[in-house]
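>> received
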Amino acid sequence: MNSVIFKNYPEEKYKIIFNQKTGFFARVEEKDTPEIFWAKSGPELLDISITNWCDKECSFCYRNSNEDGKHITIEDYETIMLEASKNNVLQVALGGGNPNQHPDFIKLIQLTRDKYNIVPSYTTNGRGLSKEVLEATKKYCGAVAVSAYEPFDETRRAVFRLSDHNIKVNLHYVLDSQSIERAIDWLENGHPILDMCNAIIFLNYKPVGKDKDYSLLLKYSPLLKKFFDLVDNNVNSFKIGFDSCMVSGIVQNMKNINLTSLEPCDAGRFSAYISEDLKMYPCSFMMEHYEGESLREKSFMDIWNNSNSFKEIQNNLGGSRCESCMQKNNCLNGCPFLREIDLC
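>> returned
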């Protein structure tokens, strides 16, 4: 099977290239054509919660996942995959809950890759990485992310098990006004976990979930400038990445960044989120703020093209909220619905 996918969208005057093996992805506009704002043909990435079950029950979990959480059925998952395969989707990011503890996890990732030719990846808390799950992950998945949780014992074991199976693993680190101090220490001095990872990905803290704490907002840290300076002049061998919620801080604080490599918020433009009960949103963090559109009641593309929540997010990202800022085109007005997380 050819691992490189080319798609051409002549009406919108751009093409995409995606290498399923390496993860390389690029949108290429036709000459003298502005960068495409959103994919009318459907999202390139779906973020799917396949379960809200988790036995870790962290107090800060934005999904409030616990042992009463429900699993998506194989039938419902295939409903999503059928629509995804017809409508532009190249990759799915499986989450939860802890997705690899879904009782049919191996079947789900096998279906995704073999039947629908879509690349699955997932984020794990580190539990449930059985030999069978690791072997299936290596065979079917593009990459795996491990969430970093103190005291990092489970994190370390999970990263070791994945890397020992030659599975590309990234470390997801939530950056807030308190955890930034440890992040700076790791940037300055390194850490054994990072030696086993492909990259560390810093995620901007969002005040959602039952224990949301606005005092943890990253913008309140006096160490923010130091953090970005260290990233800007990275002297360590490990790679560093960010979620798109960090873009407003990156463009304001970093000088050595190639702006063409930045991806501002793509919610409702190139990506969407679907919950385990088949409700579709532009972004997973919107569940407290918007009512999801049910795939049991509306079609996938009807929601993508016509839902009020998707249109509102697109309008916020393409609007004039930050008209006077020179970086507006690089961060698209910051977060389209959680203005308080912006770092500018």
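>> The first helix runs from residue 74 to 86.
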